[in-house]
Write a sequence for this structure.
């Protein structure tokens, strides 16, 4: 009987131990890949599909728990490549109200990818308390951001896809 009490006490201690993911998580903010010019709600170009495949391969080795996309063809298509690669379903968010997704990411404390736009991606990084976030030029598709949160400290990095672009 005495042995049983000690053993059950160990189970409680293990079950109550904090998980590392609650203390540390990464949020990747990705602008959609190259889009067809001069189209309403455009899809990806062939180059955009290649870049999306590169992103999918990049994220495959990361421990990603969630994937969000704004509700536009180009972002959903970019996210679809990533979703298939990491085996995580895509959820939609409203790109016109970034505070909602920023709050969700901060509260959930999970490693996620958010696919957005040249004008929303830097703004979302700023809402996540990243400092000195540069804007993304409309013609730039290779940059994406990593916001790392560890014990309430935020670290911001600019990453670049290694896909060679057509000149």
């Amino acid at each position: 009987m005495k042995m049983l009490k000690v053993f059950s006490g160990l189970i409680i201690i293990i079950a109550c131990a904090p998980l590392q993911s609650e203390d540390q998580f990464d949020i990747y903010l990705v602008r959609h890949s190259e889009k067809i010019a001069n189209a309403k709600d455009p899809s990806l170009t062939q180059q955009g599909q290649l870049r999306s495949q590169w992103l999918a391969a990049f994220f495959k080795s990361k421990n990603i728990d969630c994937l969000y996309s704004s509700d536009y063809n180009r972002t959903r298509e970019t996210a679809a490549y990533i979703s298939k690669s990491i085996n995580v379903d895509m959820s939609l968010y409203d790109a016109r109200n970034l505070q909602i997704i920023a709050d969700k990411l901060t509260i959930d404390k999970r490693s996620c990818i958010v696919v957005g736009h040249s004008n929303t991606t830097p703004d979302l990084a700023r809402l996540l308390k990243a400092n000195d976030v540069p804007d993304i030029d409309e013609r730039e598709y290779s940059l994406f951001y990593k916001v790392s949160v560890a014990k309430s400290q935020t670290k911001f990095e600019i990453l670049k896809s290694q896909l060679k672009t057509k000149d």
Notes: The CA atoms of residues 10 and 16 lie 10 Å apart. The chain has six helices and six strands. Residues 20-33+42-160 form a domain with the Rossmann fold fold (CATH 3.40.50.1240). Confidence is low (pLDDT under 50) at residues 1-21.
